[in-house]
Amino acid sequence: MILVMDIGNTNIKTAVFSGNELKKSWRIATSLSYTSDEYGILMHNMFQHAGLIIEEISGILISSVVPSINFTIEHMCHDYFNILPHFVVPGLKTGINILYENPKELGSDRICNAVAAYALYGSPCIFIDFGTATSFGALGGNGNFLGGCILTGVRLARQAVVSGTAKLPHFELNLPEKVIGRTTISNLQSGLLYGYVGQVSYLVERMKKEMNAPDLPVVATGGFAVTIAEQSDVIEFVDPLLTLKGIKMIYDKNFV
Hints:
Blueprint: E1 2-7, E2 11-18, E3 21-29, H1 36-50, E4 59-64, H2 67-81, E5 86-87, H3 108-121, E6 125-130, E7 133-139, E8 145-152, H4 154-163, H5 184-211, E9 218-222, H6 225-231, E10 237-238, H7 242-255
Parallel strand pairs: 1-4, 4-5, 6-9, 9-10
Antiparallel strand pairs: 1-2, 2-3, 6-7, 7-8
Helix pairs in contact: 1-2, 3-7
């Protein structure tokens, strides 16, 4: 079995695959204060709860956009799985061409999303990852990663509007029935969330125009993918495990 990990700024997503079969996936908080032992015990408990055996893991591949935690996670893998993990870094086979001016600038999570989107949804296509930041990626007709755009994630936008104002209160990210709210809370909720739907729709339509591909598929992943997709006419597919699937595909291309 193979363990894959997607280390993001807010959460660490993990999954266990047996061949191409997903056995189990989890999500735990990204915390720079945790030790390798604390993460190891968390992983041990999750494996035990799922009825999986740590000793059956034969390989680990990690995508990380939080370099400061990599040393801790690497030691956890060595101490609790007896495996030195691999990381998604430049030089690994991906099956796609990255047309960034400097490919080393591209986050490993976006590479993994591109690999999975190309394999599962074809090209051209657009993929969107609703994480701490929301990133858009464009794949050309031959599977080339053309580039994309990045904007503030939903939670960061909420944090900014609350911390940057004197009187606006903290609010839950629940979608109200109407855009026109009659309380300050509902005004904040509708403005942020419906406004976000509008941003996504505009950016996708603009990307389609620049790619000259009006009918290409759009796939979304990440924590707010379902919420935004339910209100958007431009998102065709929601794939919560897109990044993890991409990591597994890269593992198979390089270490099998």
